[in-house]
Amino acid sequence: MEVVNRTLEMYLKCFTSSNPRLWTKWLSWAEYCYNTSIHSTTGKTPFEVVYGRSLPTLLSYVLGTAKVATVEQELVDRDSMIKELKGKLQQARNRMKQVYDLKHQERKFEVGDWVFLKLHPDKQKSLALRKSFKLAAKYYGPFKVLQRIGAVAYKLELPVSSKIHPVFHVSLLKKQVGVKNLVQHQLPHLDEGGELVPHSEAILDSRVRRKKQEVLIQWQGQFPVEATWEELSKIKQKFLEASLVDKRIV
């Protein structure tokens, strides 16, 4: 519904930009424009999806054919409104294109280049909710470009243990400049559902907080400054590796 409301709002702005107080008068026409516009997802208009047939063509009015003056004026206003709307929509498209062109950067990589990979995991499967997870590093690498696929995709040389498909859109890649970039080189571990699964690397410290023993864990593929405090009891339940539990702390 939010998308529909935003679309109707855009139509009403085009209709009533010169006189916003008349927006209720053009609401039905905004609804008509939405129901007769082809959606990129379905390839059909909402009218065709609901009724299974195309909408009848809206013919232009020929002056003098209506016998009632009120009807004739209504049809004349309709045609002038549609003509004005087409001009407003074209102006909106031109403005959006100008804004896009200002921020758009053409990215091209050659085979053999080293690039950083930006990942956007939707979920994290961890022991507890990490409030600072959004502040973690978003780029991994660098990785070597093996092949260019099409105009906007590249195949990267990922680690053998990676479960991620090696082909990525160019918008997720950033070319390596210099050799002093501090990023995560190892990709995160994923389960069969594509969710992140953390793996511990070392226990850096311990403490007692609220009568519960906690340990400071450095996670695999992350730097020591990104270590997090976890309850020791939950760590033992989650991880069975003997290397995880430091006997000096326990």
UniProtKB/TrEMBL annotation:
Q: Where are the transmembrane segments?
A: none
Q: Which SUPFAM superfamilies match?
A: Chromo domain-like (SSF54160), Ribonuclease H-like (SSF53098)
Molecular function terms from GO? nucleic acid binding
- Give every Chromo domain span: 198-250
- InterPro entries, sorted: Chromo-like_dom_sf, Chromo/chromo_shadow_dom, Chromo_domain, RNaseH-like_sf, RNaseH_sf, SH3_Tf2-1
Name of the featured protein = Chromo domain-containing protein
- Taxon lineage: Eukaryota, Viridiplantae, Streptophyta, Embryophyta, Tracheophyta
